[in-house]
Amino acid sequence: MIQDLFFKQAVSSWMNQDAPDSDIVLSSRIRLARNLEDYLFPTLLTNEQSLEIIRFFEESFISTKESNQEFHFLKMSELQPLQKRVLVEKHLISPHLVQQSIHAACLLSEKEEFSIMVNEEDHLRIQCLFPGLQLSQALDKANELDNWIEKHVNYAFDEERGYLTSCPTNVGTGLRASVMMHLPALSLTRQINRIIPAINQLGLVVRGIYGEGSEALGNIFQVSNQITLGKSETDIVEDLNSVVHQLIAQERSAREALVKTSNVELEDRVYRSYGTLTNSRIIESKEASKCLSDVRLGIDLGYIKSIPKNILNELIIMIQPGFLQQYAGGSLKPNERDIRRASLIRERLEDKKEKNEHGG
C-alpha cells in the first residue's frame, strides 16, 4: 500500500530535489491555520461533532481531483503508536495531533509535500513543504490548496481580525512560515548565541529541529515568524526571507573563516566524526546528530566527496526513536535502539558511498 511508504521511507520525495541555498537551508514550510464557520473550536467540540468533521473531509476531499493532488486519508485512531511517532519525526504531523488521536486525522499527498491536519488545535492546519529556501513558492502552493478547500467549506473569518483561530497568536493571516537551517559554523564559533536573541527582537523565533521546546540536534535550527496579525502573508514571508538570507551569509562567512584559520583542525573534526559513524557499534542519538552535522559540513566544504549531501536529511530522521523502531519492526529498549542506530548508520553510509562511486 502507498500508505506504508509514509512510515518506511525517511526522506520524502520533495527532499531529493535540487533547491536554492540547500547547502544551508534544508526546507521551507508554510502552515495555515483555519477553522470552520459553523463549528466550535476543536477544544470545545463534542465527540460526534469531531467525527462529523472527519467524515466530511474523508468523503469530500479524497474523491475529488480538483487540487491536482492525490491525498491519502489517515485516521489517527487507526494508526499504531510507532506510525504516529514516525509522522511526527518526519514533520508531517504535529505532536498535538497525536494527542487528539481519537478524533483527529490527516490528509497526506503522495510526495509528502502537502499535509492537512484535521482537528488539531484548529479544525485545519494546512502545511506545504519545499526543499531549500523557497518560502514564496511554498506560500503560493499553500494558498492554492487553501483556495481549493474553501470551495467546499466556509471559514471562520472576521473583516477586522482576519482568520479566527483557537490560539490568539494565530489570529489574522493564520500563517506560520518557517525554515529549517543547518548552522554548524555559527554553532562552532558560538556566534549563534548572540544571533538568536537578535532574531527574537525582530518578531521571529529560533527553535530546535522539532519546534517549541526541542533541542537543536545536529546544529539544525528552525526559524519562524511569531506575528500573524497586522501583516500580510507576503510581508511575513519577505521579512523571514530577509533574516534567513542574512543567516546564510553569516554561516558561509563563518565557514570561510574556519577554513582559513583552522583548516586542519576542522578537517580532523570532520573525519573523526565520519570515523565514529562508520565504525561505532553503539551510538546515542545526540552523538549521532553531532557527527552527522560534522560530516555534512565536511561534504559542503569538499573534504568528503564520496557521500551525497542529502545524507543529513535522511539520517537525521532515520536515527530518531520512532523511525528506528518502525524500521526494526517493533519496540526496542534504549540500548537496543543505540545498537540498531549504529548499524543503520553504517549500512546507509556504505550504501551511499557505493552508489556515489558507481554513479547510482
TrEMBL record:
Its EC number is 2.7.14.1. It comes from the Bacteria. SUPFAM superfamilies: Glutamine synthetase/guanido kinase. Pfam families: ATP-gua_Ptrans (PF00217). GO terms for molecular function: protein arginine kinase activity. InterPro entries: Arg_Kinase, ATP-guanido_PTrfase, ATP-guanido_PTrfase_AS, ATP-guanido_PTrfase_cat, Gln_synth/guanido_kin_cat_dom. This is Protein-arginine kinase. The gene is mcsB.
